[in-house]
């Protein structure tokens, strides 16, 4: 859930690829949730929710070799 590129509230779908990803080199946080849901500029700080609408994490970063929006998304776990 977020506001990518300032176009308005948007919901994207994806799967959780890993729940305790470490040493991704994007923050001092110890653990991240890895997702394939689109995390574009404007989605950081948005909710990562499960199919029941429960908060799982806060979208925080994308790792991309090209520096673009395509890559691996990461969220900070809510617990």
TrEMBL record:
Q: What name does UniProt use for this protein? A: Serine protease
A Pfam family (short name) is Trypsin_2
Question: Signal peptide: which range, if any?
Answer: none
For this UniProt record, give its keywords in alphabetical order, as a comma-separated list.
Answer: Hydrolase, Protease
InterPro entries from the UniProt entry:
Chloro_Bact_Ser_Proteases, Peptidase_S1_PA
Name the GO terms of the biological process aspect.
Answer: proteolysis
MF annotations from Gene Ontology: peptidase activity
